[in-house]
Every structure is written in structure tokens, then in C-alpha cells.
Design a protein that fits this description.
Length: about 140
Amino acid sequence: MSKKRTKARQLAVQALYQWQIAGQNIPDIIEQFMLENDRGVFEIAYFEDLLRGVLGNLNDIDARLGPVLSRPVEQVDPVERSILRLGVYELIHHPEVPYRVVINESVELAKLFGADQGHRFVNGVLDKLSKTLRDIEVKKRG
């Protein structure tokens, strides 16, 4: 795991949360995060890809989350919703990142930013989705 990618994920979750709560437009959020953060500690291109990718594929991501959630996506805590959306985006669009890394990074994000025990919820949802989104990879790992 690259520390710069981990930091990019952390910033992407914060940016997605800000987008959900404040409704700011994405270029403004990206500009703000570039000004407020040391560009040497995170992978800028990955941060932008995650943020733009999640928002550009939001309907598809939410449609995939729906069947594995016990409530509508909109009712999931905004922090956990941001983390789940990011995880689903990576599972679908970044096959070079092993599914276990995606889940682990998401769980760590939930521990860092989410509610108490939110990491268990994130782990369970992404584990279920990985079986369909990365079925060949999951089967190979046994």
C-alpha cells in the first residue's frame, strides 16, 4: 500500500463528505484541497480520479450498493456513505488494486472518520460486493 494513495483516499473521503454536506462544486473542492494540503504527501492524480470518478459514476455506484444495504443509500451516515462509494468505485474501476486492499483501506477510513463500529458495517458491505464485482479475484484467493 502506498502511503500517498492512502492519503489520497483520506482526502477523497473528506472531499466527498464536503460535497454531500455543503453542495460545493467539484472544481472548487479540488482547488481548495490542493491549496490546503501538501501536494507531496498524496497522489494528486489518484485523488482527482477518485473524486471525479465517484461523482461521475454515482448512479451506478448507488445502484450496486442498494441491494446489499438494509436501508436506502441516502439514509446511510454521510461519512460511511462516502467511504462505501469510494470503495465501490475502486472495486469497479481500479482492478489493479487488490480487492482486499480496497476493503482494508475502506475499513481504516471508517475507523479514522466514521462512527463507532462503522468500520464493521463498511467491511460487511464491501465484502459482499467484492464477491460480485471481483468474483474471479475472490475465487482465486479461496
